[in-house]
Amino acid sequence: MPDAAAARRAWADQANRGSKDGARLSYEGAHAFGADTVHRWRLGNGLTVLILVDASAPVVAYYTWFNVGSRHERPGKTGLAHLFEHLMFGETEHLRAGVFDRKLEESGAETNAATWVDWTYYHELLPADRVRLAVKLEAERMQHLVLREPQVASEKEVVANERRYRVEDDVEGVANELLYKTAFERHPYGWPTIGWMSDIQGFTPEDCAAFYRTYYAPNNATVVVVGDVRERSLLLSIRDAYGAIPSAPIPPEDVVPEPPQAGERRLEVKRPAASEKLLVAFKGPALGDADHATLSVLSEVLFGGRAARLYRSLVVDRELALDLRGWVSTFRDPGLFECWATARGAHTADELRPVMDEAFARARDEVVGDDELARAKARLELGSLQQLETISGKAEQIGFFETVLGDPAHAFRRVDAFRRTTAGDLRRVARRYLVDAERTVLRVIPEGGEKPAETAA
Predict the structure, then answer these.
(1) What is the SS3 assignment for the chain?
(2) Count of other CB atoms within 10 angstroms of residue 406
(3) Which domains are assigned to the chain?
(4) How far apart are CA 164 and CA 144, in angstroms?
(5) CA distances from residue 11 to 8, 16, 31, 168, 363 in whole angstroms, order as listed
(6) Cα torsion 316, 317, 319, 321: sign
(7) Is the Cα dihedral 432, 437, 440, 441 positive or negative?
(8) Are 88 and 152 contacting, i.e. CB atoms less than 8 angstroms apart?
(9) Dihedrals φ, ψ of 136, to 5°?
(10) CA angle at residue 34 from 32 to 39, to 5 degrees?
């Protein structure tokens, strides 16, 4: 009996008879995904297809990931990647405005999209017997999107309003934007994914068409399908729908690495808020760095849940804070270790900061106890595995790690890394990353306080 890989290659050879180069299917191997298997295929035009058959429910998650995010923009044109998240639900050459959504709704499907610094994705969750509708619609908007003035102008206004709501009229939105703008002086992580307002308002149809031709090509995309599908039948549908779409030359990235930070950066901003907020951000490792999982465990020790060190210190014992959180950015390039705290009542950021600094110093100087370490690792492992409980969750994790790291099964390798982390590892990463001279500190002051509106040191 031939092995499974040989059988798939033999089937592909048969299916390719008479096919044009762009539609030729090739099998590129399998990836163990827990108890499941992800199979990797590629079309001749460069489209990557990842399939995981899961017959636990008669549904299918269909994700299309593009290797484009705000990092691929340039100054003066920020927000284009996010604008496309809206434009892609509009009119195509063969579908009038609104028809895309209506067809999916009539089939009982859910659809959405997301854009961030390193990627953009579009997804459908639909009954298994309707998966070919997703194939047809996604292939249509990958090659036939209409980008004339009325379509672009309409979505620009939608995005401008979204920016007003999510950033300009939202305290945490403003704080997060200023934090990254201050922490990154050269790298594109310093500008917001939604874009600066002047850039959003200045986009032209020509800008959009150039971006679409450059990045919305099959050789810059990965289709991830998880659910109750017949693999070979699905592949033939994908081949027939996408095979004629030409590949495009993807320009080499021109990202300038962020230079080392020579001193602490401080910023104060006054906004309508019930109480003060303190944001402390250290430079952190890239997602693919071996230290990323370790620093995530340390973040969990400090911030994760009611038993975490800083929750006990700031919320329970001293009653200085209402809430707090820590997060190590999951970016392709080095990002930030964000530490957020909201002061309670009339307490101030100046009261929060020394308590946080004490916790950081303790992490650098002492070894974490066995119970703390075990609890942090268990919480992270549980959270990671919970994201894989649903068909849609599996598809999202496969696509995310494939797009950012080129490894669709990295979710399980990350869990293994959590399990291997030792107390000594935590002290090492604390000493490497919790460096005061390489951090950015932002204080949000309620309007009516005694501080100036914005000052930077």
Answers:
(1) CCCHHHHHHHHHHHHCCCCCHHHCEEEEEEEEECCEEEEEEEECCCCEEEEEECCCCCEEEEEEEECCCHHHCCCCCCCHHHHHHHHCCCCECCCCCCHHHHHHHHCCCEEEEEECCCCEEEEEEEEHHHHHHHHHHHHHHHHCECCCHHHHHHHHHHHHHHHHHHHHCCHHHHHHHHHHHHHCCCCHHHCCCCCCHHHHHHCCHHHHHHHHHHHCCHHHEEEEEEECCCHHHHHHHHHHHHCCCCCCCCCCCCCCCCCCCCCCEEEEEEECCCCCEEEEEEECCCCCCHHHHHHHHHHHHHHCCCCCHHHHHHHHHCCCEEEEEEEECCCCCCCEEEEEEEECCCCCHHHHHHHHHHHHHHHHHCCCCHHHHHHHHHHHHHHHHHCCCCHHHHHHHHHHHHHHHCCCCHHHHHHHHHHHCCHHHHHHHHHHHCCHHHEEEEEEEECCCCCCCEEEC
(2) 10
(3) 4-242 (3.30.830.10), 265-456 (3.30.830.10)
(4) 31
(5) 5, 9, 19, 55, 56
(6) negative
(7) positive
(8) no
(9) -65, -45
(10) 35
Residue 185 in tokens? 């002086």
For residue 71 the two structure tokens come to 């990092």
Q: Which amino acid is at 324?
A: L
Return the structure tokens found at 342: 């909201």
Q: How far is CA 455 from CA 176, 192, 346, in A?
A: 16, 20, 21
Structure tokens, 365: 């100087």
Neighbours of 211 (CB within 10 A): 21
- pLDDT at residue 4 in the model: 87
The pLDDT, as a whole number, for residue 228 is 98
Phi, psi of 227 (to 5 degrees): 145, -160
Mind listing the pLDDT tens digit of every residue in the chain (457 residues)?
Answer: 358 899 999 999 999 998 899 899 999 999 999 999 999 999 999 999 999 999 999 999 999 999 999 999 999 999 999 999 999 999 999 999 999 999 999 999 999 999 999 999 999 999 999 999 999 999 999 999 999 999 999 999 999 999 999 999 999 999 999 999 999 999 999 999 999 999 999 999 999 999 999 999 999 999 999 999 999 999 999 999 999 999 999 999 989 899 999 999 999 999 999 999 999 999 999 999 999 999 999 999 999 999 999 999 999 999 999 999 999 999 999 999 999 999 999 999 999 999 999 999 999 999 999 999 999 999 999 999 999 999 999 999 999 999 999 999 999 999 999 999 999 999 999 999 999 999 999 999 999 744 433 433 3
